[in-house]
Design a protein that fits this description.
By secondary structure, the chain is an alpha/beta fold. The chain has 15 helices and nine strands.
């Protein structure tokens, strides 16, 4: 009975400590593998500066348990298939109208040339990036598609993917909102696909919001596509964009919406925590950019709510001075880095030099490693279309190394 009383007293002490410091109780539950709820996620992402080191340490511990001390990147060619877009987001310099300086649509010959050059420089991924549904907004673009022999943008992207595959690269397509049929058409040509959720907040679509003139940024529509990708067994990348008028609580809710889709389908291979960058000439040109600690809070919250098995990424070119901070906050991936093409979405932010990035990772206790555009846990018959077998076979050595790690 004495032992029983001792354990009862210990449990009472632990319960009292949890009431005094509920954040520590949340961290303990997260590290024990318990599923955090909405109030937990908001408490994490809104933690005080003095509590942030403990939150980051817990996220890093969770990462280390599941991933070890490897941090990865994907050597890629960034292929901006077209920068025409029907949406007008308050922070985007990528999109153009027909006739604007810098407006373009890549030809398949250009896709082939850039893919070939990328492969020669050690690239593995062909990132297909483009504006949302330009054919619905611009007659000139419809004429361009007709001259290229394509009935729609998705069909033209499929041809670009086939071209990149022929050149020895593995396509990853982020073409904005796609229908279920378009996703199914692109699946045999892509080892993975993606769509940034950005934010689950409908406020950003309201009058004066950054997505007021961006119908394809409707959160419900984007979540629907993310779910449909899961139903079609497409390894999928998504993420949040912070600093575009969203609140910290909305960031937490966006992460939980991604988690819910992954729990339904198991298809989310990677979650990106991306920071808004102000650019001149746009409605948000004077808006404050998210600070380093905001990014650290969001990254750590992503790790603790999504779990150790999830791959969590922060783009290194958008925060070149925060490499060590983000590693300490629990990320395990830097996303795509190109030796050939710039970041056309953030052209002011050059990719990091790989040797220097590797040195900084090493000083922080990490090993920088290449990866494919599909994570090793998805390289199986459930997630990979049979048509992609020969393309993946070219990288059998790298796949074997990833699986062993």
């Amino acid at each position: 009975m004495a032992y029983k009383g001792r354990w009862v007293r210990m449990a009472q002490i632990e319960s009292l400590a949890a009431r005094r410091n509920p954040l520590d109780a949340i961290l303990a539950r997260a590290l024990a593998g318990e599923r955090l709820d909405e109030s937990d996620a908001i408490a994490l992402i809104e933690c005080a500066d003095g509590d942030l080191p403990r939150v980051m340490a817990a996220a890093a511990e969770m990462r280390d348990r599941a991933k070890g001390r490897d941090v990865t990147f994907s050597p890629k060619v960034f292929l901006p298939i077209t920068n025409l877009c029907r949406d007008r987001c308050g922070y985007c310099t990528f999109r153009k109208d027909p006739g604007d300086p810098g407006a373009w649509t890549m030809t398949l010959a250009e896709v082939a040339e850039w893919s070939r050059r990328g492969r020669e420089q050690g690239c593995i991924e062909a990132l297909m990036c483009l504006g949302d549904k330009p054919e619905l907004a611009f007659r000139e673009y419809r004429d361009t598609l007709k001259s290229l022999g394509a009935r729609g943008t998705a069909e033209y992207v499929a041809r670009a993917c086939a071209t990149a595959l022929d050149a020895g690269l593995l396509p990853h397509t982020n073409a904005g909102l796609l229908t279920r049929g378009e996703l199914a058409m692109l699946r045999p040509l892509n080892v993975s696909m993606g769509l940034m959720l950005e934010s689950v907040s409908p406020r950003l679509r309201a009058r004066g919001g950054v997505h007021q003139w961006a119908p394809d940024k409707d959160p419900a529509a984007r979540l629907k596509m993310i779910d449909e990708a899961g139903e079609l067994r497409i390894p999928f990348t998504t993420g949040i964009l912070i600093g575009i008028g969203d609140t910290t609580a909305e960031r937490a809710l966006s992460l939980l919406a991604i988690r819910a889709s992954h729990e339904r389908h198991g298809h989310i291979q990677e979650v990106i925590i991306q920071n808004f960058r102000a650019k001149p000439g746009l409605p948000l040109e004077d808006a404050p950019e998210p600070g380093a600690l905001e990014m650290a809070r969001a990254s750590a919250t992503a790790r603790l709510t999504l779990g150790g098995a999830m791959n969590v990424q922060a783009p290194p070119n958008l925060s070149p001075h925060e490499i060590e901070l983000f590693l300490a906050a629990g990320i395990n991936d830097w996303g795509g880095i190109s030796p050939l093409s710039r970041d056309y979405v953030n052209p002011e932010a050059p990719w990091p030099h790989l040797e220097r990035l590797g040195e900084r990772c090493a000083r922080a206790g990490f090993r920088l490693k290449r990866r494919l555009a599909i994570y090793p846990e998805f390289i199986n018959d459930k997630w990979v279309d049979p048509a992609l077998g020969p393309a993946l076979g070219r990288f059998s050595d790298l796949i074997a190394a990833e699986v062993q790690a």
